[in-house]
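re: ur question from yesterday

yeah so i grabbed the chain u mentioned. its 311 aa long if i counted rite. heres the sequnce exactly as i have it in my notes:
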Amino acid sequence: MEILNGIININKPKDMTSHDVVNIVRKKLGIKRVGHTGTLDPMATGVLPICFGKATRIIEYLDYDIKSYNCEMALGILTDTLDITGEVLEKNSYSGVTKEMVIKAFGAFNGEIIQVPPKYSALKVDGRRLYDYARKGEDVEIKGRKTYIYSIEINNIDLSEGIINFDVSCSKGTYIRSICRDIGEILGCQGTMTKLARTATGAFKISDAMELDYFINSDIKELEEAIKPMDYPLDKLGKCVMEKEYAKRFINGQRIPLRNVVKIKNTDKIDKYAIYADQIKSDNFLGVAIYENDRFCYKAEKVVGEINENI
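ran it thru and got these structure tokens back, copy pasting raw so excuse formatting
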């Protein structure tokens, strides 16, 4: 049995890069085209959806997904990486911090915020990664960026040990390390991230994530049930259906007039739609289209269907 396309939700272990997991999946499935949907630092664990085959072509649409994390931070310490793996820059007393102060500090992180990314991050400035500047001791201006916090909830405040545990749901590009730093600064004692687990990203949850060891030791038949079709996570897109005649034209890159498309589900996020032939079934998934308001038609942006398979 051969599995050519799909997405598998892996629970990334600690002390392993996201790319390490990609390499393991590539080797196990014997497929070259493999990619992940959002980098987790080596110290982080949790949900890491791995796309392979044609599913790698839909990775860009998962940028709209909300990501959720469980984080632990330590008060009174600041490192150059903003997590516990970095070089300690400051150690301060947090004896004056109260629970009321912590709750108030977290209250500032709701909705749209401006966040300064860590200097040790993969964000590019003038064509170079920030961590490249940092490792070479070069100074570079890191500008604040808009990001969105959908929810943030404190689970535990242990002021005897200076440890805070919290859950956060946020948009792509949010650095949880920076939240820890900023909360520490508000409290006047500094703070750094000590643990991080991604608990969800879009349709993928930690409860459905496969342990990497299980993935490695399972046969292909066992894995087949856990592999999701490439359209599975596209719940933020609209959904449209067209008859076979127009589906063939869509696959060949032709624009399809509005009158020949049945809109099944609208989208309030972006004007993009998952396109299906005849009915909403993963086997009938053709690709993603942009609706052109000025021309009253759907234009193919990403075609993944094949006439022999889907029509």
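noticed a couple things. The domain at 238-310 is CATH 2.30.130.10 (Archaeosine Trna-guanine Transglycosylase; Chain: A, domain 4). also The helical segments are 18-29, 99-106, 130-135, 176-187, 212-217, 220-224, 244-251, 307-310.
anyway ttyl
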